[in-house]
Specification:
- This protein is α+β, with helices and mostly antiparallel strands.
- The chain has 2 domains: 74 residues, Arc Repressor Mutant, subunit A (Orthogonal Bundle), CATH 1.10.10; 55 residues.
- The chain has 5 helices and 7 strands.
- A 3-stranded antiparallel β-sheet has the order 5-7-6, with no helix packed on it. Strands 1-2 form a two-stranded antiparallel sheet. Strands 3-4 form a two-stranded antiparallel ribbon.
- A hairpin with a 2-residue loop joins strand 1 and strand 2.
Amino acid sequence: MKNNKSIIENFLEELLRSNIKYGGFSVNLLGLPVFNKKYSKGALINAISKMKKNKFIETDGEFLKITPKGKEYIKRKQDSLQLFSNIFKKDSPKNLIVMFDIPEGKKAEREWFRFHLKRFNYVMVQRSVWVGPSPLPKDFMNYVECGINKA
């Protein structure tokens, strides 16, 4: 499964989950940073800078630690975007066109929506135009219509 989380979400989740620290970073038992994908040193430095600016993390001596604001941010992210199971077979007919316009400020929601369209075996025609099997699951549609707006 592809990781659709941003570097900041991954970083904050690891700080929240890990208690072992080395060189200012939370690490696994082997002393290695634990991320689902590889990041360049520059990307990590930029993410750390942005998280400090947003007060998601702070320096505690020579270590980084997640702040209450950072904990709240990652909890809100984890709670806000529910995961739905694929109910369609690979060879299901592609008989529904889905078009959407999710604002730039809701990047996580847009990525979540695309992720689920892929899970439902939809194919991208354009970035916001997809074709796939119908009908979309009722609980998914209810969540999109109600729940995602709260995120």
